[in-house]
């Protein structure tokens, strides 16, 4: 199996070449991508259910902002976990590493007087070191990732207890602003709505429409079955409604002095764009899919599988450090208990989003939708005041259902 073949198998939205140009029917598109579209429908269904159960409070503008601020760790760590799972591995140490890195950062700022920007660089460096530590054992010693990261979970939870103790409060206002503040309101308020948010929303709508039309044109010119124009129009209408409504919610969030786009949402957006490009447009991304799809074939094709595994965990360490920075900024204090079950939320998001248990399959958009489903579950149950035990039970059932669906789908195809 070649690298390009494996990479294409990992992207569920890739078109299938036929004997000439033409248009696929809407039925072919729906049934051929039922898993991809099903994830989006599941997200809408979950939102509708909790909107009803919370008496309409779930989609209050400030609650939507809180959804991203409080669940940023899921979105960020799910990106790294997706790459780990595609590569046929798993990382159980995420929550403990978040607690340890957050504890070290808070300790450095409070006890060493370290500048907040220098502290961020320091925390990112620690994340890379931890990622390299895990990558070394997995890639070059051959210890299974499950065992390596299980050990890491215990090691870094213990170190977090030593460093953070009961709690280390933070006083740095600029650092705390990362997870709590908004982009500067440079365009003012337009009739009570943040002007910058409205402009960004309009630009996003235009870019999405141009992207869909361009994708169809490229498919036709390449001799590949393209989506019918009627289907493109339907997708554009749905995208306009979704982006327009999200723009309304963010533009009307905040208070009389600030609101609009939260800083943390910009960080998440940049990470999604960067890693979508990495997985779909770089050699490293194609190598991850190749290794996950068939490791022996990848080795025979000349791919350095050990280096790929090492880079996967190095990257996981970096993204975990970013999640630690966001979490520490939001909580404004570091404790040894921070990050409990973060890894479970990230793993669940990937499986819900279509990542295969056996590896080799998964997409950034799918993982982000899965992370949003987990975020809506967290937010909705929190608004309802549900007991923590109920929250865990529901999450567990969702994970089992997602994995079971993946396995059943594969059996049917076989």
From TrEMBL:
<keyword id="KW-1133">Transmembrane helix</keyword>
<protein>
    <recommendedName>
        <fullName>Xylose transport system permease protein XylH</fullName>
    </recommendedName>
</protein>
<feature type="transmembrane region" description="Helical">
    <location>
        <begin position="230"/>
        <end position="251"/>
    </location>
</feature>
<feature type="transmembrane region" description="Helical">
    <location>
        <begin position="67"/>
        <end position="86"/>
    </location>
</feature>
<keyword id="KW-0812">Transmembrane</keyword>
<feature type="transmembrane region" description="Helical">
    <location>
        <begin position="116"/>
        <end position="137"/>
    </location>
</feature>
<keyword id="KW-0472">Membrane</keyword>
<feature type="transmembrane region" description="Helical">
    <location>
        <begin position="389"/>
        <end position="408"/>
    </location>
</feature>
<comment type="function">
    <text>Part of the binding-protein-dependent transport system for D-xylose. Probably responsible for the translocation of the substrate across the membrane.</text>
</comment>
<dbReference type="InterPro" id="IPR001851">
    <property type="entry name" value="ABC_transp_permease"/>
</dbReference>
<feature type="transmembrane region" description="Helical">
    <location>
        <begin position="263"/>
        <end position="279"/>
    </location>
</feature>
<keyword id="KW-1003">Cell membrane</keyword>
<feature type="transmembrane region" description="Helical">
    <location>
        <begin position="143"/>
        <end position="165"/>
    </location>
</feature>
<dbReference type="GO" id="GO:0022857">
    <property type="term" value="F:transmembrane transporter activity"/>
</dbReference>
<feature type="transmembrane region" description="Helical">
    <location>
        <begin position="344"/>
        <end position="377"/>
    </location>
</feature>
<feature type="transmembrane region" description="Helical">
    <location>
        <begin position="186"/>
        <end position="210"/>
    </location>
</feature>
<dbReference type="Pfam" id="PF02653">
    <property type="entry name" value="BPD_transp_2"/>
</dbReference>
<feature type="transmembrane region" description="Helical">
    <location>
        <begin position="92"/>
        <end position="109"/>
    </location>
</feature>
<feature type="transmembrane region" description="Helical">
    <location>
        <begin position="312"/>
        <end position="332"/>
    </location>
</feature>
<keyword id="KW-0997">Cell inner membrane</keyword>
<keyword id="KW-0762">Sugar transport</keyword>
<feature type="transmembrane region" description="Helical">
    <location>
        <begin position="37"/>
        <end position="60"/>
    </location>
</feature>
<keyword id="KW-0813">Transport</keyword>
<dbReference type="GO" id="GO:0005886">
    <property type="term" value="C:plasma membrane"/>
</dbReference>
